[in-house]
Structure to design on (1466 residues):
């Protein structure tokens, strides 16, 4: 079987990045661009006579499901659409496009044909002012790409640069110290030689009479005994510790074929875990979502917002990962259709229980109502998922000993609880008292 | 007083001096691990090139390497669906209703699938048309994953694509215009296929359709057709019969398609002091004979006389004891009137007609809604065979049948077959016919196909695929549609057909969901042409021709039968079935000639047990006319009628598509002359001894004999207190006897078992017919490995559930008690038991882990790998087990199984767990055990836990009937009932209070959670 050494990858990545940044960073001009970008919207508003802010709200509420400002989605891109068509025609189209197509309007028919004959939803409720506002919003010129990359690199370079200089200073100090030691040694040697040359005699005999420390140690049997016991015990302790962590992959965070960020999905966008891992509620496995689940959203999200990019991962990087998803699922973003050529993603499994353990997610998620984070850690903050819990039997057992059974509104437990609480004389029952420590509950 | 009847598993046990029996009693593991032999062999050790130092080096290196390898976990990939089907949730099983109809077994089933893989067959309780879900049906899911299956169509031995194949077939059909082609098929009992074939033969008028049942029911079909006009088999409801007399018919086995055990068992459980009376006249000891109240051994020649006597003739020509039994049976039949039932397996139309006429007024026979599971006419098949041999037939298309293997005159037929202009075989594997056919159309397994069936008139069943075809196969019906120029798929064809007729406006989806509808809409089924029946009783003439040869003097009467495991032999490649021990002889991986003790002595045949308890037997040659089957191993069978022998069909298939290990036994079809299952044979002893894989001496429960089987008669059951016939064992306490159920008899502190569910399994010895369905269901549910013939021979089979078969002496229970009571002092049981060889009483007892509340195994485990659960289950943690085998040694029931080897991914055990395809059948909820650990029945804890979890998730209490084990849900007869005894309203709790209830070896004081119901026999003679 293939083995990878996963532990050091993460620590190597920043280092590589640093080398990369130090080589290519040109940092100076980053401050001026945003100012220009700010100037642009004001100008646009003046041109079309609509409220850009109101337009943006309307756009996001009504249009964004099918249209993007830049790039084709279900419908064509909308930036600058106001300049392409006559304003009156636009009103008619938005209020009822199918009527316009039916009337045989050549522009409308052409547009309909170009977009895979998908009818646009009619919006009779939008007033002409609303449409003006939307068009004002869409007529804004494209903001010049915020050169975050540059800023980021500059920041990164200085930040990490500090770290390196600290290291350098320490290194230099160490070197100097080493040199001093060597010099000292040389000096004493030279002095000794000079002394010998000058006929100074050491009192060697006296030294021979005294017992060397190690011999004294060996002769003191009690001390030997104590020390050996100590050594054996500590060796045993460390060996035990080492052995016990064999096969425990806590902290395992392998590189996945697609860099999927739980931080963006579950953290920033607060998507419920069960939205994608739906089978956790009813099945023993939490289920790795199939790619069609990804495409429910990503059909329309082909790129991340500029704010999503971080110091470590750029927007281009994330967009590239979405492109990997498209490739895997066989989605042609330009044509907005599936090609049928799929490449299933081979995720690297992180949490892996041995075959002889039966674990059921639904028991814990649905019946007990445990939060995912209890075993999986603060998953919503993990850019790269790692194994949070040790997943050892001791870890399972200690939780089963401490946790009370969730009895609320569960008729199954009603009678059992009554009998058991009488037996143990307690109000609340732990899982262990319910029989959750029996071997056969998890091993069969 | 309680029964002190002596029960024995093997004749060897009656030999008081037998060292083998003694050794087996005292040691669960008879064979020592041969370390001394290995280390003591100085020469071998010295000649080895590995010195001690080298050896230590290797050990050190491997240990270090293993340690290093263990430090880093393997990288495991998880690959989700690209588009997940709506109905599949990983980890949750889906069930689909379907139908198995392979021409021999017909059954409505539920298919359990996990992640799109069928992994188990269950019974479909919605279907009420009979159709027995027997051991073979349960095992059929493994045949889907047979690695020897054909992977695509073949022309002249080379694999081609389907378009190429179709072109070749079309070309051949054109060439063959006007020449006689026979379409030889199994019985489909399928309305749609029937319609399709008639369209096919309409398009190609030179093709004629002939149905061929490998194991023929032609006589019964002819008789029914003559009397009622339809070619079908009468259906019987044995629960409605008060008196059942069977002349040779093994109706709990495969007689006329089987499926009668459910009704039979209903009538056999005493209710309100009544149960049916069953008298059996037979030659071989069958499952049915084993269950009979009175069994009379009679050779087939005598059976002909018996049947005549029962239906009006005189019994004067018969031996005295038989004549007496016949007269009594006759009187009882008459007394029962319309509640009497007479069945027979005699193959000729005349005998079948006699039985049919006798039953005409019986409430138990249903002639209006007969079974359609057999259709073939011997005459027609014979005509085809002769046509092929003589050359008048020019082409042969075979579907679902393997005539080269299964015809009696296979040799001549093969010659003729090779000369045919067109040979086309539809086959799933390279069977004997497919390996000779020029064109081979690979067909899918029934779990990959669409289909419908009319098993019984008035009921219709649907079959649906539960997995995408694994190979490049196409089902016969789709091929025919293609060749008749119909662009429909068979699915659309069935749907159209159903919508047009039997659905009668009902929902197709509902029918598909249920897999079954009852509808009185008549479907015009293609009738087998009445070539023979035209003249009324003409068929009788031919059959009697066969039987007249049979009536000659001299020789032995051979009764051919189909074994519980292999049936007609279609599933010979199925290791589960091969390893299923025959319920009577307890022998697996073989067929054998069963011979009576008297005949064995006359022929100088012997069965001996070698030192580890394994069975060896002599070889004979069996000869019918000019046909000889050589080297047939012999088993001396108590109860075999003197002058008769028995041999199972379906073995000895040596076609290239049958895996080497599964080419077991001898091919008895060579003796199946004129498709008659009774034959006059001569037997000649030949040299050599055969090594059987027989487990009849295994697990003798340490020689204990009391409290294993309890039985009594209906009379005693009705009149006497249960203390008399089902006494609770007593033990000594303070110098006075107390019941072992008394708390004071316990030296253990009891477990608290009152909270939550507490599982118990009830087994009714009256209802258990020994059919083996539970054994296979357990195999499938619990990933029980197959160990092969050699290992079974060493008693290392891994069955978690075995069905023990016990013999005992005495015509009647009372008789035996009396004889035993009058037994002179110092005389042994042998005096009583040996004469009983001729006709022993038989009892079946399924034994699995008894889940003792005071389990002896738990206390001796040095690593606490086996422990007790609050729900009553004795739990086994495999990963904790270190393989000391103390537990097995300490188990009084001998139900623990040790993994002597690694049975998966090991070329030494090349069965389903050794290839990717075969492993697809494994149940993902149960771990596959490794070498060196002990395993045993878990009381299907994965199933009980699932039921509990489902209830918890829904937040509801559990109703009775929700808990199941694999065996209890497989049991058709209702012999096994599983449930929670803390639910006082549950069926199992009520059964525990029944006066027939007893525990196995109760005097040991283990307090098991499995209990049995004592066997009651109805010995009313008048």
């Amino acid at each position: 079987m293939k083995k990878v050494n996963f532990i050091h990858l993460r620590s190597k990545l920043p280092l590589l990045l640093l080398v990369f940044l130090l080589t290519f960073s040109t940092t100076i001009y980053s401050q001026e661009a945003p100012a220009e970008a700010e100037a642009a919207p004001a100008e646009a508003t003046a041109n079309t006579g609509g409220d850009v802010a109101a337009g943006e709200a309307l756009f996001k509420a009504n249009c964004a499901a099918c249209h993007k400002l830049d790039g084709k989605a279900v419908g064509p891109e909308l930036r600058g659409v106001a300049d392409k068509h006559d304003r009156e025609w636009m009103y008619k189209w938005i209020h009822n496009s199918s009527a316009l197509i039916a009337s045989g309007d050549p522009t409308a028919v052409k547009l309909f044909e170009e977009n895979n004959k998908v009818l646009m939803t009619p919006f009779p409720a939008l007033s002409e002012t609303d449409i003006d506002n939307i068009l004002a919003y869409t007529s804004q010129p494209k903001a010049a790409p915020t050169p975050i990359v540059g800023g980021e690199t500059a920041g990164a370079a200085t930040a990490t640069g500090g770290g390196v200089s600290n290291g350098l200073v320490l290194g230099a100090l160490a070197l100097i110290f080493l040199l001093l030691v060597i010099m000292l040694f040389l000096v004493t040697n030279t002095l000794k030689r000079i002394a010998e040359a000058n006929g100074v005699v050491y009192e060697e005999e006296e030294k021979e009479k005294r017992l060397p420390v190690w011999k004294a140690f060996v002769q003191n049997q009690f001390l030997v005994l104590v020390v050996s016991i100590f050594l054996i015990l500590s060796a045993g302790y460390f060996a035990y510790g080492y052995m016990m962590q064999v096969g425990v992959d806590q902290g395992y965070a392998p590189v996945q074929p697609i860099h999927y960020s739980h931080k963006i999905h579950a953290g920033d966008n607060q998507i419920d875990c069960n939205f994608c891992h739906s089978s956790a509620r009813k099945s023993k496995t939490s289920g790795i979502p199939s790619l069609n689940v990804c495409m429910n959203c990503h059909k329309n999200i082909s790129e991340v917002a500029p704010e999503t990019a971080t110091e470590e991962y750029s927007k281009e990087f994330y967009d590239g990962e979405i492109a990997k998803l498209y490739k895997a699922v066989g989605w042609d973003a330009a044509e907005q259709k599936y090609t049928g050529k799929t490449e299933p993603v081979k995720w690297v499994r992180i949490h892996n229980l041995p075959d002889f353990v039966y674990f059921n997610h639904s028991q814990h998620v649905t019946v007990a109502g445990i939060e995912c984070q209890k075993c999986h850690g603060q998953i919503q903050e993990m850019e790269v998922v790692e194994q949070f819990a040790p997943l050892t039997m001791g870890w399972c057992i200690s939780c089963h000993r401490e946790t009370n059974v969730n009895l609320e509104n569960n008729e199954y437990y009603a009678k059992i609880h009554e009998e058991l609480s009488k037996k143990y004389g307690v109000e609340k029952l732990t899982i262990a008292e319910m029989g959750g420590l029996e071997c056969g509950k998890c091993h069969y | 007083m309680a029964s002190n009847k002596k029960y024995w598993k093997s004749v060897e046990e009656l030999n008081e001096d037998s060292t083998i029996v003694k050794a087996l009693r005292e040691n669960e593991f008879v064979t020592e691990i041969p370390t001394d032999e290995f280390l003591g062999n100085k020469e071998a050790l010295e000649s080895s090139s590995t010195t001690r130092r080298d050896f230590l080096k290797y050990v050190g290196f491997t240990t270090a390497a293993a340690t290093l390898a263990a430090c880093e976990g393997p990288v495991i990939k998880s690959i989700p669906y690209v588009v997940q089907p709506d109905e599949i949730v990983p980890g949750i099983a889906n069930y689909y209703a379907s139908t198995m109809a392979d021409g021999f077994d017909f059954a409505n089933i539920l298919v359990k699938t996990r992640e799109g893989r069928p992994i188990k067959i269950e019974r479909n309780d919605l279907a009420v048309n009979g159709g027995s879900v027997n051991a073979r049906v349960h095992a059929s899911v493994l045949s889907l994953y047979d690695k020897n299956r054909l992977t695509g169509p073949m022309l002249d031995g080379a694999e081609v694509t389907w378009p190429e194949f179709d072109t070749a077939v079309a070309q051949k059909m054109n060439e063959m215009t006007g020449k006689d082609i026979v379409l030889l098929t199994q019985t489909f009992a399928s309305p749609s296929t029937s319609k399709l074939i008639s369209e096919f033969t309409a398009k190609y008028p030179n093709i004629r359709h002939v149905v061929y049942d490998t194991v023929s029911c032609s006589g019964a079909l002819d008789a029914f057709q003559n009397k009622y006009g339809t070619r079908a088999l009468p259906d019987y409801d044995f629960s409605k019969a008060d008196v059942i007399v069977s002349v040779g018919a093994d109706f709990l086995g495969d007689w006329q398609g089987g499926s009668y055990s459910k009704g039979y068992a209903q009538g056999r459980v005493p209710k309100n002091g009544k149960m049916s009376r069953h008298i059996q006249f037979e030659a071989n000891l069958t499952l049915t004979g084993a269950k009979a109240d009175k069994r009379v051994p009679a050779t087939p020649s005598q059976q002909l006389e018996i049947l005549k006597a029962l239906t009006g003739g005189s019994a004067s020509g018969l031996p005295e004891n038989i004549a007496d039994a016949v007269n009594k049976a006759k009187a009882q039949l008459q007394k029962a009137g319309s509640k009497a039932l007479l069945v027979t397996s005699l193959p000729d139309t005349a005998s079948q007609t006699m039985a049919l006429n006798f039953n005409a007024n019986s409430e138990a026979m249903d002639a209006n809604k007969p079974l359609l599971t057999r259709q073939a006419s011997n005459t027609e098949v014979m005509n085809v065979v002769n046509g092929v041999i003589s050359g008048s037939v020019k082409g042969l298309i075979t579907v679902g049948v393997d005539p080269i293997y299964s015809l009696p005159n296979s040799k001549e037929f093969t010659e003729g077959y090779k000369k045919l202009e067109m040979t086309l075989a539809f086959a799933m594997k390279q069977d004997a016919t497919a390996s000779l056919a020029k064109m081979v159309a690979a067909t899918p397994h029934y779990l990959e196909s669409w289909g419908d069936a009319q098993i019984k008139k008035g009921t219709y069943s649907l079959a649906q695929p539960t997995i995408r075809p694994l190979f490049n196969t196409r089902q016969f019906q789709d091929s025919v549609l293609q060749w008749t120029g119909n662009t429909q798929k068979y699915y659309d064809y069935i749907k159209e057909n159903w919508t047009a007729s039997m659905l009668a406006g009902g929902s197709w989806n509902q029918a598909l969901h249920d897999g079954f509808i009852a509808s009185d809409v008549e479907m015009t089924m293609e009738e087998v042409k009445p070539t023979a029946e035209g003249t009324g009783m003409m068929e009788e003439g031919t059959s009697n021709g066969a039987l007249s040869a049979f009536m000659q003097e001299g020789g032995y009467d051979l009764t051919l039968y189909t074994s519980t495991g292999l049936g007609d032999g279609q599933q010979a490649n199925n290791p589960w079935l091969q390893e299923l021990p025959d319920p009577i002889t307890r022998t697996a991986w073989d067929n054998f000639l069963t011979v009576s003790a008297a005949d064995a002595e006359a022929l100088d045949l012997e069965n001996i047990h070698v030192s580890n308890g394994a069975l060896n037997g002599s070889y004979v040659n069996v000869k019918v006319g000019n046909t000889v089957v050589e080297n047939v191993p012999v088993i001396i069978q108590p109860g075999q009628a003197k002058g008769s022998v028995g041999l199972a069909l379906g073995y000895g298939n040596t076609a290239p598509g049958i895996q080497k290990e599964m080419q077991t036994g001898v091919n008895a079809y060579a003796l199946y002359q004129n498709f008659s299952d009774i034959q006059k044979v001569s037997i000649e002893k030949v040299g050599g001894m055969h090594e059987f894989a027989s487990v009849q001496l295994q697990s003798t429960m340490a020689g204990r004999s009391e409290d294993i089987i309890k039985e009594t008669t209906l009379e005693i059951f009705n009149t006497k207190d249960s203390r008399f016939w089902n006494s609770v064992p007593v033990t000594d306490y303070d110098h006075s006897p107390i019941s072992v159920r008394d708390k004071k008899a316990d030296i253990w502190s009891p477990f608290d078992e009152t909270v939550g569910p507490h599982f118990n399994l009830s087994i009714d010895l009256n209802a258990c017919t020994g059919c083996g369905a539970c054994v296979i269901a357990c195999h499938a549910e619990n990933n029980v490995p197959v160990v092969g013939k050699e290992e079974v021979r060493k008693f290392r089979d891994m069955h978690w559930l075995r069905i023990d078969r016990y013999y005992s002496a005495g015509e009647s229970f009372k008789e035996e008690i009396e004889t035993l009571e009058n037994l002179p002092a110092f005389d042994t049981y042998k005096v009583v038991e040996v004469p009983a060889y001729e006709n022993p009483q038989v009892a079946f007892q399924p034994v699995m882990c008894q889940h003792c509340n005071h389990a002896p195994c738990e206390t001796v485990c040095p690593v606490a790998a086996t422990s007790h659960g609050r729900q009553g289950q004795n739990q086994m943690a495999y990963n904790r087990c270190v393989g000391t085998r103390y537990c097995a040694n300490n188990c009084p029931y001998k139900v623990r199984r040790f993994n002597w080897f690694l049975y998966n991914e090991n070329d030494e055990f090349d069965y389903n767990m050794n290839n990717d395809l075969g492993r697809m059948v494994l149940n993902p909820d149960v771990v596959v055990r490794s070498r060196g650990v002990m395993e045993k029945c878990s009381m299907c804890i994965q199933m009980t836990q699932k039921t509990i979890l489902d209830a918890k998730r829904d937040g509801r209490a559990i109703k009775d009937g929700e808990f199941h084990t694999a065996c209890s849900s497989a049991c058709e007869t209702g012999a096994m009932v599983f449930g929670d005894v803390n639910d006082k309203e549950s069926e199992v709790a009520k059964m525990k209070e029944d006066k027939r209830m007893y525990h196995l070896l109760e005097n040991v004081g283990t307090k098991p959670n499995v209990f049995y119901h004592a066997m009651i026999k109805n010995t009313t003679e008048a």
